[in-house]
Predict the structure.
Amino acid sequence: MVLLLAFGAVGFLFATTKPLYRVQVVEIQNVLASEQEIMLDLLVEAINPNIVAVTIAEMDVNIFAKSKHVGSERYWQDQPESDFLGPVIEDRLTPLGRRRRQISSPEDVDPSFHSLDDDPHDPIEDPEGDSQTMLLGRIFHFDSPLNFDGDPLKRRPHYSIGELRLQKPGNKTEAGGTERWERVIQYPFELIVRGILRYQLPLSSSTHTAPIGASVAVHPEKGINEEGAMWIEQVRRKHVYDPGEEEG
């Protein structure tokens, strides 16, 4: 009897301490961007081989904007303050509700997006060092965390949506960051998310990480769509991907 209990305890522990695998961002959704704030949702896929659910609330993620209107740091350092801004744009975050879709399978992902990338297996380029890319800021917490149900037998991918918010994009990240962002947001630009997710398993004190990366083309010139978000086009590339334990 004691042996059975011991084996049961070991089995339970083994079935609750495995890290997530095949963690990746499927889509960036519900983007809202203004001079003062960026809000977006990440649709994330993962396989949870444990018998209990795993929640992800922490991250270390950089947000970038890529546009020909970014300009170099030196250019913005040399400009007098009065020349920083082009035409003034309206605040696009005046109270707008965001409706979130419930995702349970790949078929639920909106099939109507237009892919901007001709080869989905192209790796994402490192945004840092690109003269057309600027760092907007760094995020450490989800506003609304991810949650992945356990599936130790079939090990099917599960999907969850997490909400992110970045205050004062470009502020104190690069020379002329705020002014550069205010110019970028007047035109179509690519929004890039790159970093890691951090989480702990329910019965473990160890911290696990999973690299992620995704990008989306944003069209401020089109205004707001019927769902209360900006018009976007998914950029399909082979972003950061950690297969983990690809077990049967």
About this structure: Residues 38-234 form one domain. The two ends are 32 Å apart (CA to CA).
